# Entry
Amino acid sequence: MRSPSPAGDADPTFSFRTRQGLLNQLSEREFDLLVVGGGITGAAIAHLAARRGLRVALVEKGDFASGTSSRSSRLIHGGLRYLQHGQVGIVYHSLREQLVLAQTAPHLVRRQSFLLPVYRGSPVPPWMISLLVAVYHGLRPRRSGLAYEHLTPGATLRREGLLRQDGLLGALLYHEFATHDARLVLETVLAARAEGAATLNYIGLVDFLVGGGRVVGGVLRDQLTRQVVDVRAKAVVNAAGPWSDALVRTLDPKRHRLRLTKGVHIILPHHRLPLSVGVNLFSPRDGRAFMARPAGNLVFVGPTETDYEDDPAAVTAEPVDRDYLLQTINAYFPAARISSADVVGMTAGLRPLYDRPGRAAGEVSRSYEIVWGPEGLLSVLGGKLTLHRLAAQEAVRFLEPRFGHGPMSPNGAAPLLPGGRWDQPAEWIAVQLRASGVTPETIEHLMVTYGGRSAALPEMLRDHPEWGEPLVPGLPHIWAEIPFAREWEMAVQPEDYLLRRSDLALMAAAAGRALPETIGPLWESLSGRVPVRQST
Ligand code: FAD
# Structure
């Protein structure tokens, strides 16, 4: 059987090596659309625009998803708590989008159950919790087949024995979808590339080109080589997330539209808080809703929400954020006695919210806004991971008149992301992988991580059987994923793989293991060769 390209159909190369060729293309061609920012918003716009036949360039100043889109709670959700603030429209659309995304990327968007325990004296009264969940489910499309249940205190503790018993009145059990945010971005970028877009990481826009009172392109700098190139485009989209205002201010220093709020998660080893389902909690300190969610050998706890006014690049998780989350988690799981020594990692991300003065941070809408900026720059602000397709559809609709034709008809159903296509049956890939000697845990990990793109791995392992060895003993990741990230996912430096294309850095810390020192030498040794032979 033919091994499908793990990068997509149109151009099989999405390698760190492809960057120079793509960068040259940027200065040689005129594009229809230049998208600035390689988070979920920019990736989705580039994908949709390229799919509609536009010539698209996407540039990201760091690694893809290195901004907010790798620091989220990783939920593809309706947002139960948005109902508390009356944001019904967002919940309605998000609940529909979650089903679409679960179909287009089933390996990446997977169902996750949540308990919402109800306690006597809870900051949100029990009747309100029941009402919120009932309304939430009323907004769900019937075809979702996702029901919710009321659990008695006994049934709640049978589901999650670690919960505090004192004052427990019962729980609601309901279902959401979880994803890996940075991989969702990466696959969307891959999909854009497969549709012909020139997609580049580590390329920053440092200035706009303006002609005839309009933005007609940008000045780009390669962050690795410092090479500077001009790129010309009929339209430019600002999808720079928390940096959107900074971009707009290069054209008009007085503009300000964003309100940034910081959200922190702490990450614990699963063995310290061995949850079997996600748990939604209300902070006893201020009533804010947040969650504790198991994922592999990790548990994510968060997020916080506080206003943030400094440089977006300087955002960090502070001890005060960690202590707030620890206090709440210990109030619900007192027997676990979680301390700061258990925390193996923290993430801090910025919500790029569209400013509405006078509202508390949690009340500002999570919807996206699309606004024309100075000199015809289009900015796409705010939003949620869950709503990225809708934001992209609306942005492309705004841009259509620029390209001299009427509304482009949407071409068919939402396309599968590259890993969502299984050109070869999963069972066949599993048999091939098993024949290479990798463990069932690794096969499961590879299928969930790469979906149908994992079909390229057996051949890689035939050529390099040593790459079937685990990167870290006891974890399912194997050495083959390093060349895979280099050659097929444009990973430029080890942290691109360790922090975004996988969770290996966190998972190794949770397992009490060090990362192998030989990752660096392998990384360097791959620079001059093509490790994956494509079969025809
Ligand atoms: P970003 O991901 O920040 O992307 C912008 C990119 O632009 C960055 O990568 C940046 O490097 C790049 N850039 C900036 N300037 C330049 C330049 N000059 N040149 C080139 N590139 C540039 N949503 C959900 O649906 N579910 C959740 O569970 C969820 N949880 C969240 C939890 C937290 C703590 C936070 C903060 C947000 C959460 N969200 C969630 C919201 C969601 O994560 C964001 O709305 C989304 O990731 C924003 O994506 P973006 O592409 O607009 O911004």
The pocket of flavin-adenine dinucleotide is lined by residues 36-42, 59-62, 66-69, 71-75, 77, 204-205, 239-243, 247, 263, 303, 349-352, 383-386 (CB under 6 Å). The chain has three domains: 16-68+182-255+373-403, 111-177+259-357, 422-527.
